[in-house]
Amino acid sequence: MTDMAADLKQRFSQLQDGDIDVVILGAGVNGAGLFRDLCAQGVNCLIVDKSDFGSGTSAAPSRLIHGGLKYLETGEFRLVAQSALERNLLLKNAPHCVEALPTFVPIFSWMRGIPAALQTLFGSTTAPRSRGAVLIKIGLALYDFFGSRNRVMPRHRFLLKGRALKEMPHVTRQIVAGGIYYDAKISRPERLVYELVNDGLEANKGSLAANTTALVSSADGLLTFQRSDGHAFSVRPKLVVNAAGPWIDHVNAALGASAHLIGGTKGSHILLDHPELVRSLNGHMIYFEADDGRICLVYGYLGQALVGSTDIPCDDPDNVRCEEHEIDYFIDSVRSLLPSLRFDRDQVTYSYSGIRPLPASDASSPGLISRDHSAPVFEPQPERPFPIISLVGGKWTTFRGFAEEVADTVLTRLQHSRKQSTERLAIGGGRDFPTDSNARASWIRSIAVKTGVEISRADELLSRYGTTAAAILAHQSDYSDNQRIIGAQRHSALEIDWIARQELVVHLSDIVFRRTTLAIEGLLTIQGLREIGAIAAAALKWDAQRLAEEIDDVVTALSKFHGQTLTEESVRRTASPAAR
User: Fold this and answer.
1) In this prediction, what percent of the chain has a pLDDT beyond 70?
2) Which of 102, 247, 438, 457 is deepest in the core (most CB within 10 A)?
3) How far apart are alpha carbons 245 and 390 in whole angstroms?
4) Distance, first Cα to last Cα, the chain
5) What is the pLDDT of residues 243-293, one digit of tens each?
6) CA–CA separation, 216 vs 232, rounded Å?
7) Burial (CB count within 10 angstroms: exposed 0-12, middle 13-18, buried 19+), residue 572
8) Mean pLDDT for the stretch of residues 416-422
9) How confident is the model at residue 121 (pLDDT cuts 50, 70, 90)?
10) Cβ–Cβ under 8 Å, residues 186 and 65
């Protein structure tokens, strides 16, 4: 495996302003997916983000990879079909991060919602509520149909009340029936974004990636950037892609192409330390309608329960957070759905929120704004000789298909031809991932013998990092895998050292929020954060002042944006769960 940090440093040292064909501004999942696709076609790309890879909207999803059952109501059948296909492909291309998720839908009536659903289907701006059994049965049948391409999961089941309550015993007895269908969840979305970027860098030695890098100026076709270390560099691209998500309009204005493309909505989520709830879900998600008609969900995520999400108009992506009234809303919603379980504020371990970069819309309900994507183009102007393609809308699940569409547009404009499809291209640690239980057992035994770790540890790291686990365990370091992080005993100093040295880390927050799930799992303690910081400081040559600042920044971010206060003990009361 390439020492990417050292290799990238050398690439920047040799950069000339005409070496880059395409600049991608924004390294969320859409930008990163496009970067990987174009690099695979031999196009020299530069991807830049003002923060870290995958640190904006892409770090704040419901962590689902789904076809979009609710989009059937608004007649977005093409989007559902594409989403279901991309879900099926991700289950194959990123098996280390994406897994099937059986989903239970509680049903409270037999016939309600049909007139409202028909009105919405034909353009009404009022969202339907109280979807009854007939409507849900039709929807699930359609969902199976749209998910038939590259099918990897079972078809839906429809359950009468008695059977439904056996499957989900804590659900309110007010239901009349239930449905079970299959979607998927992603355990580490932020890490997958980094892997997309890294895959692009490995595919094309002429490409570059820069996180924590600001656009300083745009003049006469020359873009100048400044990195976090103060180093400035300039490139003269043939084309620019604006993949800045909620910040798209701001970036376009900075490039001299003002427009109003984005009308974002805020989506918040909370994590609960609730072992009884997680056990009762039995690996299922419950996808339900709250009392006010909004769609909510709850499912097990790395040993906790994830509850979401809100859908509130918002235009301040730099300061978005889950507010107190949203937390109350979530708790009230799950309490109503699962009345035999206790829910309280003291179970909340973490909260997060992000802005969905949806297209500007006059829809009366945020839930009716299309989740489809588009890529409007600003053609070159005398003072700006390059075109700008803006990536508007979209959803996590469809990033590969969106990237392919835009990449084909870019290739046509550059007069390049496509060399390969990304449809079957494994991502990061999904490359050469063992595809069945026998292959998995063989891979684990082989790595355990080579590195001297226990079989169970090799299995755990395969689940966490995919086949990248082999390189991590083979990493030559002053630390061993037996040295575990205080408060997070399933994570080792060896892992942290690998990440700090190999995975383009700039800040301590990159490690605990995005390259790992330590923060969202509620496993960080003050002592553990100091330990992780010391490992990163040694790898990245931080002095004592820089290390103290990095630790303070993480503590502040946890408190300000995630409702988590670090102490000498982690916020999780239960033992740390296995990596899945």
Assistant:
1) 93
2) 247
3) 9
4) 25
5) 999 999 999 999 999 888 887 789 999 999 999 999 999 999 999 988 777
6) 9
7) buried
8) 97
9) low
10) yes
Task: State which H helix or E strand residue 428 sits in.
Answer: none
pLDDT value of position 172:
96
In which band, very low, low, confident or very high, does the pLDDT at 2 lie, cut at 50, 70 and 90?
low
Locus of tokens 């929807």: 139
CB 526 within 8 A of CB 205: no
Q: What is the pTM of this model?
A: 0.94
Amino acid in position 65: I
- Summarised one tens digit per residue, pLDDT across range 140-166 is 999 999 888 777 788 999 999 999 999
Cα 206 from chain centroid (whole Å): 27
Structure tokens belonging to residue 328: 């109350």
Q: SS3 for 75-128, per residue?
A: CCHHHHHHHHHHHHHHHHHCCCCEEEEEEEEEECCCCCCHHHHHHHHCCCCCCC
Residue 155 gets which letter from DSSP? P
Residue with tokens 């507010």: 323
C-alpha to C-alpha distance for 64 and 187, rounded to whole angstroms:
9
Query: What percent of the chain stands above pLDDT 90?
Result: 77
Contact present, 78 and 322 (Cβ < 8 Å): no
Other beta carbons within 10 angstroms of residue 187's beta carbon come to 19
Whether 431 and 467 have beta carbons less than 8 Å apart is answered as yes
Rounded Cα distance, 139 and 500, in Å:
46
Is there a contact between 427 and 196 (Cβ–Cβ < 8 Å)? yes
Q: Which two tokens stand for residue 151?
A: 């099918």
Q: What whole-number distance in Å separates Cα of residue 24 and Cα of residue 47?
A: 5
CB atoms within 10 A of CB 548: 14
